[in-house]
Amino acid sequence: MEAVIIDSGGANLASLQFALERLGVRAAVTSDVRAIAAAARVLLPGVGSAEDAMQRLRRARVAQLLPTLRQPVLGICLGMQLLFEHSAEGMTECLGVLPGAVRRMQPARGRPVPHMGWNQLTGSRQDPLLEGIDPGEYFYFVHGYAVPVSEVTIAHVHYGEAVSAVVRRDNFWGTQFHPERSASAGARLLGNFLKLT
């Protein structure tokens, strides 16, 4: 398979499938470890609770497989957060592929949590995932937990504070936003991911 989408139980699985189909790629949704290991590219989406998603991945033995993958892997929204070591959501132990912990976002006047809607990327570092994406491009976010900016951050977003919007270590990338809901900029990012080898 050119790409597979890991069945993490999130509600955005079909919209991600459709986004990939518009780019000419049919991606199966699966939790079969053999199919995931054999795929050229792997997408880990997620919507909902970190604790529930990790339990689902562990039951399917996907949690043990994921850190060993050598092909390009893209975590999306909760899927990005699961790549880190821990999440404050349920004090959950995550996959540990990326260093650091996911924190609860703090609401403030005029800045509700969850952070929901369009926001601009800033501070982008050069990376093939972001090729052709202009500085200040808008992407669609829906999240109540976030990862502080760190050495794995390649782009961040401001929502009261700077938080990681795109991260990378080796063959693992993550986006806090939903590229499948982010119009032409999101399609460009997914297209870039599909070109990674």
What does this protein structure show overall?
There is one protein chain. The chain is an alpha/beta fold and 197 residues long. It has one domain: Class I glutamine amidotransferase (GATase) domain (Rossmann fold). It has helices at residues 13-22, 33-38, 50-59, 62-65, 78-82, 183-195; strands at 4-6, 28-30, 42-44, 73-76, 86-87, 92-93, 101-104, 115-120, 138-143, 145-146, 153-158, 162-169, 172-175. The strands form 3 sheets. A 7-stranded mixed sheet has the order 2-1-3-4-13-12-11. The protein has a 4-stranded mixed sheet with strand order 6-5-7-10, covered by helices on one side. The protein has a two-stranded antiparallel ribbon with strand order 8-9. It is globular, with a radius of gyration of 15 Å.
Observed structural traits:
single chain; 197 residues; alpha/beta; Rossmann fold; seven-stranded mixed beta sheet; 13 strands
Q: Using the CA coordinates, give the radius of gyration.
A: 15 Å
Biggest beta sheet summary: 7 strands, mixed
CATH superfamily: Class I glutamine amidotransferase (GATase) domain
Estimate the mean pLDDT confidence.
Answer: 95
SSE pattern, N- to C-terminal: EHEHEHHEHEEEEEEEEEH
Approximately how much beta-strand content do the residues carry? 25-35%
Please identify the top-level CATH class: Alpha Beta
